[in-house]
Amino acid sequence: MKIETKLLLFATALATTLTLSLPAHAQDAAGIYKSKCAMCHGADGKKAAGHDLSGAAVQKESDADLTAVITDGKPPRMPKYGDKLKPEEIKGLVTYIRSLKQ
Question: What residues contact 7, with CB distance under 8 A and at least 6 apart?
Answer without folding.
Answer: none
